[in-house]
Amino acid sequence: MLLTIVAAVVVLGAVIFVHELGHFLVAKATGVGVVRFSIGFGPATPLRFRRGETEYVVAWIPLGGYVMMASEEEAPALEGQAPERPYPPEQLFERKPLWARILVIAAGVIMNIVFAWVLYVGTAAGYGTQQDPTTTVAAVDSALLPDGARELARLSYPLNLARINGDTVRWWNDVQAAIANPTTSRLTMEFAGRTSGVVLSVPGTRMDARARLYLALKPAWAPRLGYVAPGRPAAAAGLKSGDLVLTVGSDSLRYWHELVRVIEAHPGDTLRLAVARGDSILNVSLVPSADQDTDLVAGGRRTVGKIGVGPQPDVRHVRYGFLGSIREANRQTLGAAGAVLFIVKGLLVGQISPRELGGPILIGQLSGQQARLGLESFLAFVALFSVNLAVLNLLPIPVLDGGRLLFLFAEAVRGRPLSVGVRTRLSQVGVAILLAIMALALANDLLRLFGR
After folding, report:
1. Quick one: three-class SS letters along 298-327?
2. Per 3-state DSSP, what percentage of the chain is helix, strand, and coil (rounded to 5)?
3. Smallest Cα–Cα separation from 255: which of 149, 141, 370?
């Protein structure tokens, strides 16, 4: 518990501090007066001091932070009291050129991205990166295969995937990268033991079809548990990361996808698992929850069983030099941003349930889990969370950086700013939306915590 609390404080504190530091430094550099630099919202804790014109504060509600700048307008509700003394006109935020104001607002997001990139460079240089050495396709889900890839359903598996478009496949990461490459018009897959390759006529511009193709390929992962979600059926039954599931009922398991198939087919049913943990064999009973999931074949939604686990592939560490670390950091930063955007899109169009949203409790639990896995995993989680904060702050919701930038872009198009009244009303709507999202996330946290 203590490790979880400390890890959560470090993650939230570091990422929020870096974000607000971006706003602070650029505001100072452009001559904007800074009234208050706060980590957290609400009343200040005893951890506060003043240096020069700026008050530095740690507040009681650790769900964000703010840099309160000298302004002609009334301070937003989340930013506490107005400044105690007037500031000269040249230090007021509104009196600065438009480009300077855009830089000040965008600086927080930029700092979060740079911070994550630096962490990814450091972990790549210091630890290398994790690569999945699996190159064997254990099976193919023929129902998921897009048009142009049906030939894969006619092969007998397992098969070792040797090359894609002439490039050697050394890791499962290579499979993912090749399929995700939007510049290729088709994919030629060569399997060991076969004299001819299989040509898949799926253009890279059809990202939905490429995604279905990737999901249809089932890597030869053992049915070993990696991530075990707090409060979900697997955790409630006592299953732990590293457990190897041998059987479900009378069915023996060889691969991870077989476990997933059985679990998804039995929502609400009692399943009995035989699990290897170290030198012991455990018998565990659990009931998969009935969750709504996207039906990638028929469209719409379907009810499937879920127990809240992820796989644990036998990953290997690959070391990088200086330039290699930079390339790997670029890849991971872009990949993390893309993943966050994918989740946001899924939430907006209904492909991902709002129940998957997490709040401060889940962040704390994940922080503790990553800290227990070691410094490398913890730093990677901090980097991912920093990218997550950056992308979410760019959402066009007033009071977030994205909404404030939208106001400034509107000013650039109109030639004059939106009225104070319009901005105030939109900001009030933004606060309401933000509070609703936070309440939903916290409710989800509590439901997970109490396993309901």
Report:
1. CCCEEEEEECCEEECCCCEEECCCHHHHHH
2. 45, 25, 30
3. 141
Q: What local confidence, expressed as pLDDT, does residue 78 receive? A: 44
Q: Number of C-alpha atoms within 13 angstroms, CB side, residue 175?
A: 24
Annotated active-site residue 84? The verdict is no
Beta strands 159-164; 225-228: pairing state: unpaired
Q: What pLDDT score was predicted for residue 127?
A: 85
Q: Is 404 helix (H, G, I), strand (E, B) or coil?
A: helix
- Neighbouring residues of 188: CB distance < 8 A, sequence distance ≥ 6: 163, 164, 165, 166, 197, 198, 199, 200
List of residues 6+ apart from 9 with CB closer than 8 A: 62
Which of 92, 97, 74, 69 lies closest to 412 in space, CA to CA?
Answer: 97
Q: Which of 206, 312, 223 is nearest to 262 (CA)?
A: 223
pLDDT in tens, 425-449: 998 898 899 889 888 888 888 887 7
Cα separation of 199 and 148, whole Å? 8
Could you give the CA distance from residue 174 to residue 166 in angstroms, rounded to a whole number?
12
Residue partners of 254: CB distance under 8 A and separation at least 6: 138, 222, 223
What is the C-alpha separation between 132 and 36, in angstroms, rounded?
Answer: 47
Distance CA 379, CA 371 (A): 9
Low-confidence ranges of the chain (pLDDT < 50): 76-79, 452
Q: Look up residue 276 and give its two tokens.
A: 């290897």
pLDDT for 42 equals 82
Residue 106 sits at φ, ψ, to 5 deg, of: -75, -15
Task: Quote the CA–CA distance of 271 and 189 in Å, as a whole number.
Answer: 38
Which amino acid, residue 82? A
Radius of gyration of the chain (CA): 25
pLDDT at site 83: 57
Q: Say whether the peptide bond before residue 158 is cis (omega within 30 degrees of 0).
A: yes
pLDDT single digits (tens) 408-425: 999 999 999 888 889 889
Domains of the chain by start residue, with CATH: 107-128+319-355+362-452 (no CATH), 136-219 (2.30.42), 225-303 (2.30.42.10)
Q: Take residue 196 and report the two structure tokens written for it.
A: 């001819």
